[in-house]
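pipeline stage [seq->struct] | target=Sugar ABC transporter permease | organism=Dactylosporangium salmoneum | residues=313
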Amino acid sequence: MTSMTAPKTAAPTKGQVPPGRKRSTVARRLIPYGYLTPTVLLIVVLMVVPIVMVISYSFRDNVIIQDNSVFAGFANYTKVLTDPDFLAALKNTAIFITVSTVAHLVLGLAFAMMLNTQLLGGVAKAIFRIVYILPWLFTIAVIAVIWRLLLDPSGVINYVLHTLGVIQHGVDFLGDPGKALWAVTFVNIWSGYPFFMISLLAGLQGIPGELYEAAAVDGTNWWQRFVHVTLPQLRPVIISMAVLDLIWTSQQFALIWMMTGGGPLNSTEMLSTFTYKQAFSEYEFATASAAAVIVLLLTMILAFFYVRQQRER
């Protein structure tokens, strides 16, 4: 009887990786990219492709009918940058985002310190937290409708001011070009400060108590402890929140559109409402695309400083 012997496989030489192990190593390296693929596809389809299309539209004319569109160069950008309505919108947006961000910071820090103080009990803090966070619970549509009713000439605010003797006649806060911008800015401040308050409250609770004890031992008062202990410890949070708020506020559209629509007389016209009107009211998609690209560039500048600050942290 002959014995059957299995063929011997050649042993891998020194430094040579077996084929099976090599395939498994490549597969393990490709697994993370497989997990990222759906997200990358969504970003490309929903973000990259639209941005590229808008940029291409901004350099063309007659973009509604693709067959008749022609290359216009920087003509659309020149038209937008010399448009008085765009310049007014740029000015209003600068005022709107600056005042809103500063007020969000001041109010948020004041309320956060109030909620972090040891002078209030647990029940009182819980009640104040509920009251202070209420504006953040409403959607923009609800906020716009409520404040339009409150600011109406025959609304509650005019009634209270008239009762107190501050005014003699009803004031149209949203219909007066001199007051409309400040009215919508106030509403935006009211609806946005809770986010600052919560973030700064978390930062305050993360400051070690030993720092305040050491400062008290050195004989400092509450203002010196606030300036030399609280603010330096909150600096990273404050800078991050301020840059984020600048970006978010510059893109505010729903509140402005539902309260004033950019009026009266363009007194509350923002870059977002100007771009929307160019595209869907005047059907000037080329100039709307140019305005959108300008807004994108301004936002990217703010985003650059935010990312840089985060890397420094």
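stage status: PASS
auto-comment: The beta strands are 60-61, 70-71. The chain has a mean pLDDT of 85.
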